[in-house]
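Dear Dr. K.,

Following up on our conversation at the group meeting, I've run the structure prediction for Phosphatase from Gottfriedia luciferensis. I'm pasting the input sequence below exactly as I used it, so you can double-check it against your construct before we proceed with anything downstream. Let me know if the numbering doesn't match what you have in your notebook.
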Amino acid sequence: MTKPIVFFDIDGTILNHDKVIPDSTKKAISELQNKDIHVAIATGRAPFMFKEIREELNINSFISLNGQYAEFEGEAIHKHALHPEQLHQFTQKAKELGIPLIYLNNETMRASIDSHPHIKEAMTSIRMQHPEVQHDFYLNREIYQVLLFCEEHQEPSLTDGFNEFNFIRWHEYSSDVLPVGGSKANGILQMVNHLGFDMQNVIAFGDGLNDLEMIEKVGTGIAMGNAVDPLKKLANHITTNVDEDGILNGLKWAGLL
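The predicted structure tokens came back this morning:
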């Protein structure tokens, strides 16, 4: 099919730095939908973390948890969980080192520890509260992503040897833990294949390190003006900042508006 599909990251792309959706973004996405162009979200957040955003923008398709869980129009079309035994070993090592974790599936999240300043700092940055504690939450259920909470220089002491996991830092005090091969790009590929689309007709907007593979693999990758430098180097186009009509201007450049 030649019809385009457009994917938008959330933090720093749909949401500005005050975690508000700019009016120009709301109008731009509505115009796409009025043109019968498929619009979807591609985010590191779990589905329950952006339900209100989906409702506000009337978007029912998404790649979440950095590509590990995807839905199209309310139907789950892709799931990619962390390896259970490796996750158990990882949990035990994190406990030994005193590094807290948060486990996420598509419905909820649980923490490995009652409270920690790194969890508070990182979760506050995305307007989320410290989750409930359940030490064994990862046992006997699919876990699609884990958040580990430590400074960057401390991370290798925990992550070395876990070759079935990828680690992507998203905050000064936190990194995402993903299955090897898991990414927004892979999640998008699963949705595109489900729809019978072509990756060359996919347009994606992003700003962070977890958008690198997505921006590189889609047909047209657009980096926000506020994006990290490595992403800008990969993008086909750099639009303006999120607070400077970045999505609207990017869609105009792409010829969709």
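Two things stood out to me. The first helix runs from residue 23 to 34. The longest strand covers residues 165-171.

Best regards,
J.T.
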